[in-house]
Q: What sequence folds into this?
């Protein structure tokens, strides 16, 4: 019996020791790590397949949350591949400072990557998802990163990553996305890169930045690369189909270009291999002692000859100067030395001018001072001139937001908060802690490259001064981590485009008086840009999607001035013709005040007919709204058949006819015949003042109209 008690006590003691050891090894998970996973779980819509995970609290390390690996109290690995997860990544992943591997591949995750990613990752795998935007700049600071896979997503635009610090990266996969532009120049810093996969993108330019990398596998198929393939890449496992490379031998490098040496491969090890390699290199690529001696002797000879000619020239100049001084002693007038052209690059033109002066005025120019040496003159003229760009002040009424502020307010720019996507970027709904709701426009790198932060600040300063009741007001901006974001006031009813084309119920809510009100307010906004702003601003991007409606159906022109100030705006706008472009813009790509008038006329046509400016689903003769509608604008019978069916015939006939007259003036093919916006505004004001406010119907028996003779008060 005594022996049994001893055994039981010993067993209990052992269990306590093991339990203590277990709790010591794992412990409670670090609070910041737990918060980061709570936020990630919420951002992924709290998926049931993540067993043990919770939206708040919990202990990932002790409770064995699925996919989580810990070391003591810190999370070191997070592997959630192939679990059909959706949603976004949240905005707290940077709290996972001990995480070395993040694998979320083969899921349905989307949205833009968060700006804050775990800073100390060695492996990051986000392949086979639906991520959009640009590869975020925060990847640039992951100095320990060895493996990066963003393949098979929906990334687009210029690569925003700075690779200067990623010297440990061995595998990089950007394949099957929509990346554009040339490869970043900082690729040259990837001195450990072995495998590079860029296939099926829209990269362009040359491969010169890859020439010195120790690549073993390179796939660049199906891009827009041009030029020649560097000879140093031809020994790699290279797949290059679907590009436009030049055939034939590459041209020789410019004189003085240092030879490109690929970084040494790390396959071989051991001291004997290193010694033999160094000896072989000295024989093959090193310059022999005889060649060095020859070069030194040649340099000495050239230097001696240059010195001889300089001395001879100086003596000659001294003699000529003494003769000139003797000649000019008796002359009544001489030019001071400061007026003499001293720069060697214009000596020939100076001598011609001197000859002309000699023959006409008999004046000898005094030479430069003899004590000034040739070397000093050369040094002084070769000093680089640095032009500093003046700092642009942003008005004080515009707030500066941080990336973190906007990340939180938009839930990491989630798809759920996406309001729309335009020519220059996406717009997101942002709700802040104080309950205020704003709209955040994230400008694409194709519209404004990440490096042009100074230009962005200048653009903000120009947009911020625009002040009109019918122009969407800029309230803030953000320029961090190479990103450019504009923060605007939010209008709850959405865009005119949505009202007219997306919902039949909403289009019915847009009664005739409201349509005239929208047209007049928009016309006033454009009149402000054209005739009040100095210099005048050509909007270039007037369309129903850029006309926002507030709770009282007042219109607000959005993206105002953005197309005028962005450097690549014309090129981007000309890539897609939605039916708003004037004929001269389609032909020449040049915008003017009169092309804005035309675009506004197209918006009025949308208000009148409820049709899109270009609709490929209709018959060929009716696809272009302007071509179909213009011949019928002055035919009252045809006009009645053109009107938006959602109006159900409830509109004043005279108001409709006058509205059509304004449209006809605005969409004339010749720009010189289109009216200025001040005249358009005046015509619409008169229309409102003279309009019969009773709701009338077309083609209905008069006895049926009697009940609708009461004036309507929803005009203005």
A:
């Amino acid at each position: 019996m005594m022996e049994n008690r001893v055994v039981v006590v010993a067993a209990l003691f052992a269990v306590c020791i093991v339990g203590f050891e277990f709790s010591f090894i794992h412990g409670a998970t670090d609070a910041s790590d737990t918060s980061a996973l709570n936020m990630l779980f919420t951002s992924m819509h709290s998926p049931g397949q993540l067993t043990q995970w919770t939206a708040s609290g919990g202990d990932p390390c002790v409770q064995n949350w699925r996919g989580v690996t810990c070391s003591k109290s810190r999370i070191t690995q997070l592997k959630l591949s192939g679990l059909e997860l959706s949603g976004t990544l949240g905005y707290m992943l940077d709290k996972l400072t001990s995480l070395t591997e993040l694998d979320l591949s083969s899921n349905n995750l989307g949205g833009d990557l968060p700006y804050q990613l775990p800073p100390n990752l060695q492996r990051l795998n986000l392949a086979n998802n639906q991520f959009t935007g640009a590869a975020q700049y925060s990847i640039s600071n992951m100095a320990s990163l060895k493996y990066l896979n963003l393949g098979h997503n929906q990334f687009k635009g210029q690569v925003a990553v700075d690779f200067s610090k990623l010297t440990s990266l061995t595998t990089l996969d950007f394949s099957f996305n929509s990346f554009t532009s040339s490869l970043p120049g900082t690729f040259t810093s990837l001195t450990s890169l072995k495998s590079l996969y860029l296939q099926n993108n829209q990269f362009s330019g040359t491969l010169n930045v890859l020439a010195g990398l120790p690549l073993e596998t390179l796939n660049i198929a199906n891009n827009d690369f041009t030029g020649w393939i560097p000879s140093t890449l031809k020994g790699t496992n290279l797949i290059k189909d679907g590009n436009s490379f030049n055939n034939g031998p590459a041209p020789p490098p410019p004189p003085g270009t240092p030879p490109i040496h690929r970084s040494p491969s790390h396959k071989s090890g051991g001291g004997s291999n290193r010694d033999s390699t160094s000896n072989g290199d000295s024989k093959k690529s090193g310059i022999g002692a005889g060649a060095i001696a020859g070069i030194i002797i040649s340099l000495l000879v050239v230097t001696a000859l240059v010195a001889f000619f300089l001395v001879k020239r100086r003596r000659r100049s001294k003699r000529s100067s003494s003769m000139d001084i003797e000649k000019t002693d008796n002359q009544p007038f001489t030019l001071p030395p400061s007026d003499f052209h001293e720069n060697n690059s214009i000596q020939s033109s100076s001598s011609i001018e001197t000859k002309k002066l000699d023959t006409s005025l008999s004046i000898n120019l005094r030479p430069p001072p003899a004590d000034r040496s040739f070397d000093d003159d050369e040094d002084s003229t070769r000093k680089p001139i640095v032009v500093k760009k003046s700092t642009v002040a942003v008005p004080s009424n515009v707030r500066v937001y941080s990336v973190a502020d906007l990340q939180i307010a938009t839930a990491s720019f989630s798809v759920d908060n996406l309001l729309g996507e335009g020519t220059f970027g996406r717009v997101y709904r942002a709700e802040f802690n104080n309950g205020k709701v704003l709209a955040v426009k994230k400008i694409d790198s194709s519209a404004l490259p990440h490096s042009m932060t100074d230009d962005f600040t200048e653009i903000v300063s120009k947009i911020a001064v625009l002040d009109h009741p019918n122009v969407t007001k800029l309230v803030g901006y953000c320029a961090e981590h190479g990103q450019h974001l504009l923060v605007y006031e939010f209008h709850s009813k959405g865009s005119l485009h949505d009202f007219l084309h997306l919902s039949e119920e909403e289009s019915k809510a847009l009664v005739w008086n409201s349509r005239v009100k929208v047209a007049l307010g928009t016309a006033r906004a454009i009149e402000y840009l054209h005739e009040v702003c100095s210099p005048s601003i050509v909007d270039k991007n007037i369309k129903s999607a850029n006309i926002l409606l507030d709770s009282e159906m007042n219109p607000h022109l959005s993206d105002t001035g953005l197309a005028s100030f962005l450097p690549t705006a014309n090129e981007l706008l000309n890539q897609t013709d939605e039916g708003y472009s004037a004929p001269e813009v389609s032909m020449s790509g040049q915008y003017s005040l009169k092309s804005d008038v035309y675009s506004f006329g197209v918006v009025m046509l949308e208000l009148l007919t409820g049709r899109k400016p270009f609709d490929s689903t209709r018959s060929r003769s009716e696809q272009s709204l302007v071509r179909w509608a213009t011949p019928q604008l002055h035919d009252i019978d045809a006009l009645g058949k053109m009107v938006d069916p959602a109006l159900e015939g409830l509109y004043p006939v005279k108001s409709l006819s006058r509205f059509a007259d304004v449209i006809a003036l605005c969409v004339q093919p010749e720009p010189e015949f289109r009216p200025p916006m001040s005249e358009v505004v005046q015509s619409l004001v008169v229309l409102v003042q003279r309009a019969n406010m009773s709701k009338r119907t077309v083609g209905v028996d008069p006895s049926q109209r009697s009940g609708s003779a009461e004036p309507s008060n929803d005009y203005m």
Notes: Confidence is low (pLDDT under 50) at residues 6-26, 265-286, 318-389, 692-716. The chain has four domains: 26-121, 133-244, 393-490, 493-695. Residues 289-328 form the longest helix (40 residues).
